[in-house]
Amino acid sequence: MNKTAIISIDVEEWYHLDYFSGDRSGHSVMDGLENILRVLDEERIPASFFIVTELLANHSFNFDILKKYGDDVGIHSCNHKKPNTQCVEEFTEDLDSAIRDYIKYFSQAPTGYRAPCFAIDKEKMEVVRAKDFLYDSSKIDLPQNKLYGNFDLTDYEKISPLVYKCQNFTVFEVPTKKTATGSLPIGGGGYLRIIPGWLYERWVRSYIRDSEFYHIYLHPYEFSTSKIPASELRSMSFLNRFRMLYNRRSTRKKLKSLIRLLKGNGYKFSTYRQYCTNLK
Ligand SMILES: [Zn+2]
């Protein structure tokens, strides 16, 4: 397979983050999603999306437009509850409800899944697999982030460094750069926003030197320029405010630069769904 890169977007609102109390205040960060879509248009590249399905019912945004970018829209739970805080029954109910919301909106079944905060274990991943999803991208090996799970992939065949298969189900592990002292986050998210661009790109450059596949995840709030309600900001710790807001204005430029870096190194952009099709 050619050198392939995938950009994925976890479509969620600011209040889905753990830092907030849940007061939704009518504020939205979907301008951040529009900013990401603009970059995809400018660069003429597709993307994969994972949507928090309660947005499909509650939101005025036209999510149908996402299908234009490679027709690969998966689900990211009903309302961003972390699977590792749910028992198997609660998780199954949540997943079933997300699938129902999805079908109601898109008139077809979802093929992709990503757990909120990558917080899922093997037992619950088996529930996902049993629902006929084509793929998942909830695995990440970054032990320093205590929110993340890192589920066991025994029983899966390793197809390449980040791709695993069990029958017709594929798991895409989010990349990390291994060093003598641990794992460096090179898979996007807040790390792309917070880490200086020159350093982030140095890590990515070193990773793609020995790899044919790279992918990242993004969030609308990282690309939003709208203001979070003051009442919510007041209730946040300094650390959480930093994690949520630092460097937001730089993220678009960093993403463009990363896309150029990948293109310059011979990478073609695709979607998880297309990648799975090519694997067959
Ligand atoms: Zn999320």
Q: Outline of this structure?
A:
The chain is α/β, with parallel strands linked by helices.
Instruction: Tell me the major beta sheet.
Output: 5 strands, parallel
- Number of beta-strand segments: 12
In the CATH classification, which architecture applies? Alpha-Beta Barrel
Rg, alpha carbons: 18 Å
- Show unreliable segments: none
Question: What class would the helix/strand composition place it in?
Answer: alpha/beta
- The succession of helices and strands, N to C, reads EHEHEHEHEEEEEEHHEHHHEH
Average pLDDT score: 90
- Helical fraction equals 25-40%
With helices defined by DSSP (H or I, 4 residues minimum), what is the helix count? 10
Distinct ligands, ions and cofactors found in the model = zinc ion
- What fraction of residues sit in β-strands? 15-25%
The CATH superfamily is Glycoside hydrolase/deacetylase
Domain count: the total is 1
Could you name the CATH class? Alpha Beta
Describe the structure in your own words.
With 280 residues, this protein is α/β, with parallel strands linked by helices. It has one domain: Alpha-Beta Barrel (TIM Barrel), CATH 3.20.20. The protein has 10 helices and 12 strands. A hairpin with a 2-residue loop joins strand 9 and strand 10. Helix 1 (30-43) packs parallel to helix 9 (251-264), helix 3 runs parallel beside helix 4 and helix 6 packs parallel to helix 9. The longest helix has 19 residues, at 88-106. The radius of gyration is 18 Å and the shape is globular. It starts with a strand and ends with a helix. The site of zinc ion has 5 residues, from loops.
